[in-house]
Amino acid sequence: MGGGTQSGGSSRSDEEWDRFLRESVEGVADAPKEESARARESAARLRSAPERPEGWRVHTPVERGGSKGWYMVAMLAALVLLALAFAPASITGLFGSDGSDSSPLADETARPDRAPEADTAGRPSLEEPFRGSPAAQWANGVAGITVPRAEAVGWMGAAEVEKALARSRDFLVASSLDRGVLRGERPDKAVALINPHQEDVQALLRTAFTAPGKESDPLLLFSRFEPSRTKLVGDEIKTRGRLTYQEGERGALRVTADVTFVYPVTRVGADGDDEVVRTIVRRELVLSWDDPAKVVTEPGTFSIVSYKYHVTNGGCGAPTGYLAPPFGTQAADATAGTEIDPYDRSKPVDGPGPATDGACEKATRS
Q1: Do residues 222 and 209 lie in contact, with contact meaning Cβ atoms separated by under 8 Å?
Q2: If both were cysteines, with which of 5, 14, 130, 154 could 136 make a disulfide (CB 3.0 to 4.6 Å apart)?
Q3: Which regions of the chain are under pLDDT 70?
């Protein structure tokens, strides 16, 4: 008998009707089944539970858009670092520098082509004796004297040249940085490095400390202050300069020293007086380390070929054997004379020393 009618009016077969009845009772294998109450409760708990923490070994790929952004940031940072390395002054100026930079300068290895820039940050004080001066960026003491790499010259090998350069620097320390010498003591260590057979210099030394004069002034070679009148401020003496060398006469090693020394000083015995004066001395010496087979000399000593120096705020007039900084009204009176910038190392020293006719040069800054 027929079990039903298909669309279009055709009758279902007996086999199709039997399958329909069986699936109605047993259910179709692929048909979705309704979840049980327990299953629905478990699913709800999982949805409400917090996310599991990421495992420490789990790799999370970086999105391509983010990696491109970080690449651009890294490239810009590298460009900024390169700019700072090659033009630090120009770059830092973009960030509003106040002109009071006190970072140390690089060693001087050649004569500069211009004077340092002016600094108007203030006047010197007992606490900051180099304030307002280019020397604030200079090295202290022997560290400011550049010594070149040694090579063989004339009768000396490289090792001997290196030793001679070190002793030439030692002379500058013993003559212009030694605290005892600056307090007026006799510069015995410096004198011991001078060839005792160089008669003209030995004649100067015999009278310089007892009867100083124009041709026998100890200031020609040594820096000295009168201890009863002047004392140094602080522990630092700023220096800037260099040694150079070449072959001289008869195969000698000729060393040239060009160094500027800045001494901050104040008056002795003036209670409550905080006035600080900077005495600036620039020295240019030419020393000859001679071959003992050709010149009469002693081991470890040099002959002085020439000496020039220039003094600012060190007094002028008849030699007394001491630097004489102007204090108080003396400083106010020092307004006449030729103007000079004592920090300008772009030109060589042009004279043997300060004027002895009572005229002083006028420093444009100190």
Answers
A1: no
A2: 130
A3: 1-74, 77-78, 80-102, 120, 272, 330-337, 351-360
Q: How many CA atoms lie within 13 A of 324 on its CB side?
A: 12
Q: Residue 252 in contact with residue 198, Cβ under 8 Å?
A: no
DSSP per residue, 234-294: SS--EEEEEEEEEE-GGG-EEEEEEEEEEEEEEESS-TT----EEEEEEEEEEEEE--TTT
Query: Which of 220, 342, 321 shows the shortest CA–CA distance to 277?
Result: 342
Pure H helices in the chain: 14-26, 37-48, 64-86, 88-93, 158-176, 179-182, 188-191, 199-208, 329-333
Retrieve residue 122's tokens.
């203030």
DSSP one-letter code for 321: S
Question: In one letter, which amino acid is 297?
Answer: T
Contact 316, 334 (CB under 8 A): no
DSSP 130: T
Q: pLDDT by residue (tens digit) across 211-232? A: 999 889 999 999 999 999 999 9
| Residue 48 CB neighbours (<10 A) | 7
Cα three-residue angle 182-183-187, rounded to 5 degrees: 60
Distance CA 25, CA 17 (A): 13
Question: b/e string for 51-62 if b means 16 or more Cβ within 10 A?
Answer: eeeeeeeeeeee
38, exposed or middle or buried, with CB in 10 Å at 0-12, 13-18, 19+? exposed
Structure tokens at 36: 């049980």
Reported pTM: 0.72
**C-beta of residue 198 within 8 angstroms of C-beta of residue 303:** yes
Tokens of 98: 């106040």
Cβ atoms of residues 288 and 299 within 8 Å: no
Contact 213, 207 (CB under 8 A): yes
- Dihedral sign, CA of 134, 137, 143, 146? negative
Q: Phi-psi category of 177—alpha, beta or left, where left has phi over 0 and alpha has psi -120 to 50?
A: alpha
